[in-house]
Design brief:
6 helices, binds fe (ii) ion, 2,3-Dihydroxybiphenyl 1,2-Dioxygenase, domain 1
Length: about 325
């Protein structure tokens, strides 16, 4: 197999537009991101980890307008700049500096490959404490350390790209950024419903997925959700209560995923983008053997199933066509 153009180091940031920046920023503050810098055109937000800002908020219609990956070296930017349609290496706007190559993936999403951004100082993480489990008393004479209010988001973790052809889109990321399949879920007729992919960092353990490639029921193309790691379980639960008190729209959770293993909680921003809090992901490396399973086999460890608000990003006649197609394939398979 030929080598990828480069092997992405990490998911760097998302660019998200919103028609009402004040409202959007309020949601992000209540979600647990913190403002790192402001410019005339954008608000740059970060987690408590020292990585440069992971979220760029700009004025616009509402939606994710670009996704960015960090490269290990400038030679990686030189390599990807050779791809047809890619920009030359340019100076990256924004407070962290660095350089960027911009290009589009097969579903039309703007992808930015960046290098040389300056790290920040870490911020205070969520408080943490040990748990008494299975009769083992590990927290004797100590109160739990719990912060009330927004979760303390640590970092951006993954996102899900949905389209009518997730297999083709995955192929592009595999070829150019080195993403590898961790697990895949198939529709009854054999097409990919979801391909979970991870960074290729060899023996180093990485999150089970950095990008999920999902079949869009409406056959549209978009970022279906963006996910952020929070400090720990109590931090996730505190953040859940806070978002509930602030009357934000809860979409799915709380539960623990079967594929990926995270404890998850999904919220929709006022501008229509699903934002996930998660903690405690599965970590895998190149020894991981990808599993293939059918949609009916994916039952999370615990928690409610997803509702239509999570499964369908936009209702159109294709949604009904695809539901019928899945049901038909299921009935012929059984
Ligand atoms: Fe997720």
């Amino acid at each position: 197999m030929s080598e990828a153009t480069l092997k992405a180091k990490r998911l760097a940031y998302v660019r998200v537009s919103a028609p009402d920046l004040t409202k959007a920023e309020k949601f992000l503050d209540e979600f647990g991101l913190q403002v790192a810098a402001r410019t005339e055109n954008a608000v740059y937000l970060r987690g408590t980890d020292p990585e440069p800002p992971c979220y760029v908020l700009t004025q616009g219609n509402g939606g994710v307008t670009a996704i960015a990956f960090e490269a290990d070296r400038i030679a990686d930017l030189e390599a990807i700049a050779q791809i047809e349609g890619a920009s030359a290496i340019e100076t990256l706007d924004g407070p962290a500096g660095g350089q960027v190559v911009r290009l589009r993936d097969p579903q039309g999403m703007q992808v930015e490959i960046v290098h040389g951004r300056t790290a920040l100082d870490a911020l205070e993480p969520a408080p943490a404490h040990v748990f008494n489990m299975n009769g083992q008393q590990q927290r004797e004479g100590e109160l739990p350390a719990i912060h009330r209010g927004p979760s303390r988001v640590r970092r951006i973790g993954h996102l899900v790209l949905e389209s009518a052809s997730p297999g083709i889109v995955y192929g592009w990321y595999n070829r150019h950024l080195g993403l590898q399949t961790s697990d895949a879920v198939r529709l009854p007729d054999g097409e990919a419903q979801m391909i979970f992919s991870r960074l290729d960092r060899g023996q180093e353990y990485v999150d089970h997925h950095v990008v999920g490639f999902q079949f869009a029921m409406d056959e549209g193309a978009r970022v279906q959700h963006v996910a952020f790691e929070v400090g720990n379980l109590d931090d996730l639960m505190s953040g859940h209560e806070h978002l509930k008190r602030k009357r934000h729209k809860h979409v799915w959770g709380i539960g623990r995923h079967l594929l990926g293993g995270q404890i998850f909680d999904y919220w929709k921003s006022p501008f229509g983008v699903i934002h996930e809090h998660w903690t405690d992901t599965d970590l895998v490396n190149q020894e991981h053997e990808a599993q293939e399973c059918g949609v009916a086999d994916v039952n999370d460890y615990w928690g409610p199933g997803p509702g239509p608000g999570f499964i369908v990003s936009r209702w159109n006649f294709k949604v009904f066509k695809n539901i019928a197609r899945i049901l038909r394939a299921r009935s012929t398979a059984s």
